[in-house]
């Protein structure tokens, strides 16, 4: 059992517990004696603690008295130090001002540069003492010295580099180099004035040589402007490169100011002589100008283009000057002017610094491209008439017309060239020109050269068959005309795809704010119409080719026919024509298989439509020409429906065959008009009628049919009859 404190027991008895602890009276007395002794010890301890506390308080008071004296000494020391420092600064300021005034009079700019900075720094310590007359007087003397230095330095530069005249009266000197160091400490306006005067003097010769009335000022001699500044920059770096501080970036500042002057002068010159600007001259000037801007980007960083403070270049400047490059190279050939240039680098800070002045005159370029494209289309038309349509049986048949590629190559060159000149409204104007001549190409080259059809171009329908007069004929297309239609179709497809790409490229080149104004959907629809018309012509031609056979069928003496044979002559004629023309169309549309499939589908559907018309006429045959309309006998109607349904189903097999011409079309397409079970049976029957290809042959599917055996024919007829019965029920 665990130990339990007697005090915690439920039957605890205090008297018994005390008697147990102190069984005798002697022990109880000893306890009280021990308690008294403990109380005495505690009282003695409290007395000692009180004594210690009193001593600590006395010690603290003593320390406070000692530290009070030390603080007073610290304050005195600090005040004394400040006074000594201020007196030293005052001595330095007074002596520095005296020395500054003396050095200024002696033009000792090298010593002044270091001294002036020190004096200015010392004077900052006395800003709170400006109420003292002596300090205020020294400050005024410093300001007067600075003003005198500024005036004196500007006068020295004016004397060395006079503003009037094109000849320099002096050269670089150590005095002016030190003066530039002093200008760094003076008011920033002094430095700006020095830079302005020096650049103005350095470019004064340029203003005289290329003023508006000079022959060299016109655009045809724009190269001389850039050659002049190249020589001047080389001359500057050789003579004055060490005179100005590097962080002033004087070489770049001279080039930038030259660009501003050139842009202003060229804009004024072109405005006054706008009638003399020709497109070739304009492109020449723009090309030379953009080349110069690119050269500036290679040499300079462009951080002086803004009026903010110039920063020191992160990379040291190369010792060689790139303006020396191509200095002695000959002029470019004229044919190089039209060669597409690489697009400008997006990080070129100098792009447009001069060439911006040409933008108001880009209408000359746009008008020139309008004229050139018009002449190009006329040349395409003349070449087509001279060369004639593509020859059948050659590589030209069904090929894309070469003029199409020539047109889009020219478009690309114009687009790149114009985007270098401007990405704004001129690009929109050029897009309008592109649209105009895309439509003209579609009309004049494609639609305009499609073979013409006769009035009765829809083939021989059942209604027209009943009214056909003897001796009338409908013209069919020759093999050359079929090849031409296929070639135009292929060209239209190429134009459609390339026009879409052209639209995307134009949107990439133009400003983002103008992207929505570029839309070539109408032109793409025009080419789609050409494709549709071409396919329709091919279908009509194949349809028209069946007319003689249908005419022969209408003139056949059916009353003398006693037995039904295997195949009528007019059917053989239709099959022979299909076998002759369809392979030609297929081969010429090898590059556009999807449109060959569309041709097959449309032709088959046109036959299905004629078959339906024929079925309707046959059902009404007993009452044709009669004033009394009577219902045909049921036995006759059953025979017509049975026979025509079989014909319709066979033609639908042809439709399925068309869908298999391209691999990506599904055989089970709902457009076939047959159920899935019927499709399988029909395709099996169709495969049985295809000839076995020669061993190793990989040729495509052919429309040639093999002669079936009697057993095969009987089996197929039974299967077809079952399907027909199923459809009739």
From TrEMBL:
Pfam families: VPS53_C, Vps53_N. InterPro entries: Vps53, Vps53_C, Vps53_N. Residues 307-348, 687-729 are annotated as: Disordered. Residues 703-712 have a biased composition (Polar residues). Its main location: membrane. Keywords: Coiled coil, Endosome, Golgi apparatus, Membrane. GO terms for biological process: retrograde transport, endosome to Golgi. It comes from the Eukaryota. It is a peripheral membrane protein. Residues 606-653 form the Vps53 C-terminal domain. This is Vacuolar protein sorting-associated protein 53 homolog. It comes from Cyprinus carpio (Common carp).
